[in-house]
Amino acid sequence: MAGWLRRVLAVGLMLALPVGGLADGSAPTVSPSLPAVATTPARVCGTVIVPPGVGSGTPPASVTELNPLFDDSAYNGEAVALLYSPVFWVNREHVIDWSRSIATGIKVSKHDTVFTVSMRPWVWSDGAPVTSADVKYEFDLIKKLGPTYLQYGGGGIPTVVKSFKLQGPETFVVTTLHPVNPDWFEIAGLSTLFPLPQHVWGKYNINQMWRRQSDPSFFKVVDGPFRVVSFKMGRHIVFGPNLSFPGHKAQIHRFIMKFLHSSGAEIEGLRTGSVDISNLPLSLWNEGHTLSGVRLVRMLPNFGFNYLQINFRNPKVAFFRSVKVRQAIADALDQKKASHLLDHDLVPVEYGPVPVEPPTFLSPSAKAGHYPVGYDPAKARALLRAAGWKKGPDGIRVKNGKRLSFTYLAYSGGATALLVTELQQQELRAVGIEMKIRIVTFNQLLALSQRPLAWEATGFGWDMGSYPSDGVQLRTNAPYNQEGYSDKKMDRLLNDVDTKPGMEALYKYQDYAAEQQPEIFEGSPGSVVLVRKGLRGVNKFLSPTAVWSPQYLHFTTPDCQGEKVTVKGAAR
């Protein structure tokens, strides 16, 4: 799955996994209070319990809603992906996997303006057929939502579409306003489309859908591998197999997302039996390696990057509008050192908007590691001097009576994340930049980031979907451009990425973005996942594009239960 899973995740300045207490204080999720799931075929057995965020290198959190039209976080996206199937499934090699897609093919016209999509027979969980009209229904809802739809304009949907026409129940034709780059439009645009059950949802207006976005009864009719059995806000979601799903059938009878709020609670949950898969918190690295009854699976970084987001709208930090200041910040931060000391070398060094792993889309200069910025404190000081910033009595630079100082909003609950942030605070101070740290909760961070004058800088992680064109964030007035960045050349280069075939436009855009540092780019971390022995299929379950496929999970032990987890050399 691709662009529709582009989300922001609140993280530390370099997104290190936070850790809280070793126990979440709740009873095991496998308690009898959880609702029973209807009888399924005999080969389907076992319950798998995971916290949101597993495999993504992010701390756990809660799922808050299930409607893909209003989805605003990766955690929600993980749940949504279980209920609704994409027209196109984009794999970890960033190409369409037709075996897992509803679509069977795309025909592109000579001038790259007409895209004819054919679909395989598919079915809703109530027995009604999934048709091309259901895909158009979702497209029309996006148009109706306009820019309030968080993915609006991503991949050109619906902004570059001239018409969306049906050619029978299993074929639709999308015509664009002008020639487009077919690779970009297919992977970043058309891949965001998925059917919605018009025969059920059609009687509701947008406001009614909004009010019921967390009501499980609204989502009874699905075409994905699972259905909702129970949704307890703040506690868990229980999923059961969708027995009508035309794709790979689930091999477990319950899949539970248990909402935890610290990485320490994840690993304790694995030890006590209340979860079956967890991230390995970096600050509990040794603890995780002492567990027996688990195996460790190393995951590649999500296809995205982390970044220090700076506020161009706030006049208190107008110095962020200076390219020299932004470059100096990037040059002051030793990404390699932070990764080695605090992140167990799981975070690659990165200075641009295109992920370095895999290197599929990197420009020649980026692939060679040649960026306009890089760790160089001496260069950072020279840039600040050239921009007119002189050292004050306390070492912090001053220009026209204004100190080179800003406040960074950090996500609470993360010991390792805070250590990374404090390390970078010291590195910035060494070149004359003061970064004050203010700790807020995840929800506070999201709320404050939407108020232009309420923040100065913060840290986020960014999931690119499957094609690394970041127009939804870096284009002027783009839906995710909450920082207010605007640059005419960047707009023009992003337009070239969307319209010109081949990779040259993408190379020029990423090299310019690396020079401009509209946000201070950093690498996205890989992660290590702890998995209860006897549970298999994890590599197909997890994906670097942040999509979950738990229908591939299965137990190998006869009673469909994993082995007991213990701590080596200790009685628990």
Can you offer a commentary on this structure?
With 572 residues, the protein is α+β, with helices and mostly antiparallel strands. It has 17 helices and 26 strands. A hairpin with a 5-residue loop joins strand 16 (390-391) and strand 17 (397-399). Helix 8 (323-332) runs antiparallel to helix 11 and helix 15 (488-499) runs antiparallel to helix 16 (504-516). It starts with 7 loop residues before the first strand and ends in a 5-residue tail after the last strand. Residues 1-43 have low confidence and may be disordered.
Record the SSE blueprint.
Elements: E1 8-10, E2 47-50, H1 74-83, E3 103-108, E4 114-119, E5 122-123, E6 129-130, H2 132-145, E7 161-166, E8 171-176, H3 182-189, H4 198-201, H5 206-211, E9 226-232, E10 236-241, E11 254-258, H6 263-272, E12 277-279, H7 285-289, E13 291-292, E14 294-299, E15 304-310, H8 323-332, H9 335-342, H10 364-367, H11 377-386, E16 390-391, E17 397-399, E18 402-403, E19 405-411, H12 415-430, E20 434-440, H13 442-449, E21 457-463, H14 471-474, H15 488-499, H16 504-516, E22 520-522, E23 527-532, E24 535-536, H17 538-541, E25 554-555, E26 566-567
Parallel strand pairs: 2-11, 19-20, 19-21
Antiparallel strand pairs: 1-21, 3-4, 4-8, 5-6, 7-8, 9-10, 10-11, 12-23, 13-26, 14-23, 15-21, 15-22, 16-17, 17-18, 24-25
